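Notebook entry, structure prediction.
Reason for the run: the old model in the group folder had no record of what sequence produced it. Starting over properly, with the input documented here first.
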Amino acid sequence: MAQEVKLNMDIDGEFKVSDYSFAQSERASFLFRLIKNSYPLDISIFNNLTIVFRNSRNASQTFTVTANSSNLVTVNNEKLVRVQLPDDMIKVDTIFSASATIKISNSNKVLPAFSLVVYKKDSAEMSYVRQVIGQLNETFGLYANMIKNDKLGTANGVAITDSNNKILEEYLPTLYKSHINTNISTGMVHGLGLNSEGKMIYYDPADGNTKLVKSPI
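New structure, fully documented this time:
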């Protein structure tokens, strides 16, 4: 039975990637959510991810897998890096440590290590542990993809709204502010306005005059 395991891998090392357990009967591949500065990594700067698996009981048993841009997959509009677990790893009942190196913007960085536990058969306890880890990873994914409070109302951040769900005027560019008028009957909005009779008028740049809009528009 094949399974896809979604794990978080923090580029800055602030959050440890989740440990995971699986059964020998399962052919597992990892879907890594790459996190940087508490946000999903900009995949456009991703070059490759190399993970070395080492058998804790047999130092000579080492497996290395590398994922590059061809291993990128999209799940629920989220870009993830898929790494196929070597089949030889799940033939023994043991614990593997895994260390990863990521190359982004042509710069290598060693990431926090994590561990894998292989069981000879699935068990109720392992299924529960797997379920909890999965929920933790999904929750972290929601956090990573949300807008953080420290980005609200800041430079290069996100404009906030008022109680009426309208963007505050202070966050609008000057070009747009120049078109804001609280009384449309006395001002021009994008060259359009209303005269005293409530009829639509427009500004004609050819002669600098306002003119009545003829029906139909």
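Summary: Helices lie at 124-144, 174-177.
The old model has been moved to the deprecated folder.
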